[in-house]
Each structure stands twice: as C-alpha cells, then as structure tokens.
Amino acid sequence: MKQSVALSHASRLVNHGPTVLITTAHEGRRNVMAAAWSMPVEFTPPRLAVVIDKKTLTREMAVASGRFAVNIPGRALADLTFAVGSVSGREVDKFEHFRIASFEGAMPGLPLIDGCSAWLECRLIREPHSEDAYDTCFCEVTAAWADDRIFVNGRWSFREDNVDLHSLHHLGAGNFACADQVVQARNVAA
C-alpha cells in the first residue's frame, strides 16, 4: 500500500546519510551542532554540501572563519549528537557544558571531536549570491581521517566488534538508525 507523504516530510524519504557534527571556531570561540543533511557533490577535489541554517551561530562562525569540520559520530555518541543539536551555542559553550573532548587536526584551533568514526576538515566555498538565501553550504575537504577500526582499505567496515562506531542516521524526534547490517550484492550482470 502506498500513502501520501506531507511535503514537509518528503526529505526524510531520501535522507539516510550519516548524521554529522559540524564544528567551528572563530576568534577564540568554538561551537558544535548536529546536521542531518550532508552529502558528497564532487570527487576531485572532494567537495561536500552541508545544510547549516543561516540563522545559527555555527553558520556565522563558518562564514566568518571560512572553515569548519565535519565529524562523523557513531552509536556511542548518539546522546551527545542529540544534545548538541537541541541547544543553541548562543546560550551555552557546548564544549564545556557537555564536556566534549576534542583535538586539533591540520587547521589550528578547529576542534575535532574525540570518539567519532571520521573527521573532515573543510574550507567553505564562498557563494555570495546564495549565502543569504539558502541554508546549503558547499565546502572543499582539505584533510580527512578515519578510525581504522571501522574504515578499512577506503571503505566502511560495519562489524559486530565496532558497533559503537557505526554511523547514526537521523529519523526525527531524537531517533537514529545505525548501519548495523551489511548486504553484499550478487553480480547478476555476469
């Protein structure tokens, strides 16, 4: 049976990508927010599209500094991911409030969150004609790392021994699905 889906929920039908944590830093201040909408848009150089609401502190800091990081949390960070997505950085320093451990990558001062499965440092691609109109930001990945317990030979490796690192996929209202089952397709073209 098929059912009609409200257009306000239509994006949920195609948004199964990993929920990410966007970290920013500017003028001695840092922030983190959860984002459910991110995707690769180009291979070389690697570029991403990430939806960061133009009214958020994270967006302001990313535009001001020209950089941000995309942290990919796993199951072990589900509570933290939901929490940082539910509180504004204008009200509280989320790193202090939630006791978030972080480290620096290649970009000095830009926090990367401990315990994530992967990290991508990004340079914001300026889109002056759309910065005030759209929430979507485009960026170029300038450095990337992944935990070798879950990313092996250039691929995700979801196994029983690394479930805490399995990516989160936001379903709404604080609910997440995890990539717990891998299905190997048969080559039917042969």
Automatic annotation (TrEMBL):
Q: Which residues form a coiled coil?
A: none
SMART domains in the cross-refs: Flavin_Reduct
The family database entries (SUPFAM superfamilies) matched by this protein are listed as:
FMN-binding split barrel
Keywords recorded for this protein, A-Z = Flavoprotein
This protein's cofactor list reads: FMN
GO MF entry, a single one: FMN binding
Flavin reductase like domain location is 12-153
Q: Belongs to which family? A: Belongs to the flavoredoxin family.
What is the name of the protein in this document? Flavin reductase family protein
